[in-house]
């Protein structure tokens, strides 16, 4: 399941980061773990 995306080369109006926080929380509650980088991206998406 795709729960978001990160485009480090986004320019202009392009979306750089998109995270479906509800689905991320669902999978974490089911035991999924995130890498350090993904955890930072999730945190960044919540701050935006």
| Secondary structural class | alpha+beta
What's the helix-strand series?
A: EEHH
What fraction of the residues are assigned to beta strands by DSSP? 5-15%
Low-confidence stretches: none
The Rg value, from CA coordinates, equals 11 Å
| Main sheet properties | 2 strands, antiparallel
Percentage of helical residues?
A: 40-55%
General form = elongated
Q: What is the number of E strands?
A: 2
Helix run count: 2
- Enumerate the strands of the largest sheet in spatial order, edge to edge or round the barrel: 1-2
Average pLDDT works out at 95
**How far apart lie the N and C ends?**
23 Å
Structural commentary:
The structure is a single chain. The protein is an alpha+beta fold. It has a domain at 15-47. The protein has two helices and two strands. The protein has helices spanning 21-29, 36-47, and strands at 4-6, 17-19. Strands 1-2 form a two-stranded antiparallel ribbon. The longest helix has 12 residues, at 36-47. The chain is elongated.
Spell out the key features of this protein:
48 residues, elongated, two-stranded antiparallel ribbon, alpha+beta, 2 helices
């Amino acid at each position: 399941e795709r729960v978001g995306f990160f485009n480090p080369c986004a320019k202009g109006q392009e979306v750089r980061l998109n995270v479906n926080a509800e689905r991320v929380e669902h999978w974490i509650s089911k035991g999924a773990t995130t890498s350090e980088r993904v955890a930072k991206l999730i945190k960044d998406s919540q701050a935006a």
